[in-house]
Amino acid sequence: MWEELPLWPEQASTVAGKVDALYLFLVGGSAVMSLIIVALLALFAVRYRRRSKADRSGAVNESLPLELGWTLIPLIIVMFVFVWSSALFFHIQRPPDDTLDVLVVGKRWMWKLQHLNGKREINELHVPVGRDVKLTMTSEDVIHSFYVPAFRVKADAVPGRYTSIWFRATKPGRYHLFCAEYCGTKHSQMIGTVIVMEGDEFQRWLGGEVAGLTPAAQGERLFANLGCNTCHKPEATGRGPTLVGVYGTAVEMEGGERVTVDETYVRESIVDPRARIVSGYKPLMPTYRGLIGEQGLMNLIEYIKSIGPPEGGKSPAVDSPARAPHDAAPGAAGLGPALPATPSSEPS
Length: 348
Known about the structure:
Blueprint: H1 16-47, H2 64-93, E1 100-107, E2 110-115, E3 120-122, E4 124-128, E5 132-139, E6 144-148, E7 153-157, E8 163-168, E9 173-179, E10 191-197, H3 199-206, H4 215-225, E11 250-252, E12 258-260, H5 263-271, H6 294-306
Parallel strand pairs: 1-5, 4-10
Antiparallel strand pairs: 1-2, 2-3, 5-8, 6-7, 6-9, 9-10, 11-12
């Protein structure tokens, strides 16, 4: 029904109708209140204008029912909108457990996307209809904003951190993708297309020619090339803590702080390893800031995700960090190697 309105964008995701309903309620409610206020202003201005014969006797200076009315009624309306919008916000911000994951890197002036089987795209995103899709995003330079109007989803891609959005497309088609944050002289050219396909068609497309390795395999290769495996050994006998099963667990820092190992923490441990020191290890790890591109960092994170937890038990990094033997060298503080940094061959 709403799609028949002039210039109304197409609804092509499960949240589009919910976002439109809230939007139209806000616009409609604001319009009704505005009309009531303007109508009362016009009525009183004409009725009680100077030299009018309107009866001005018996003026009321205060009225408890009136004051309660104009206080409680707007409060109820505002709280109704707050609860409605909060529920919708949390629904949009919390992706389901079983999602099709895609890595996204914004760069002036393009979107670089990679599926977990290694298939890469630029300014195009192929997804299946009726499947929850989660995008994990970052930026190589400035703030960008990934916006698909037909899906009613938008989120910033921010340098130095990870953000995510999810959606479920409801019908096949081609839908516009925009950068909704001004990012430079060619901002208007940072556009693309989301291509929604039937499930079988998407599987054929995804299983077609794939250039290169999966993100996890690329991360494993980069992990070895940088020498990370010489310090972060699976059996926790190296100079750094073991990374087996560490992702998603809580790790104790110096000072007693407990930090969940997620994308943001792993990235920080690579580019700024001395920001937070794992308890029991010394700050010997060098920084890899500027030596590994954002795509390389995402690949390392995917590799760390893929190596745990081990079957039959928790990682030694859970609850208390694994300690190296007494005759071993002092451990690294973060998740990378305590070795001289070497530039990555990972493409930027």
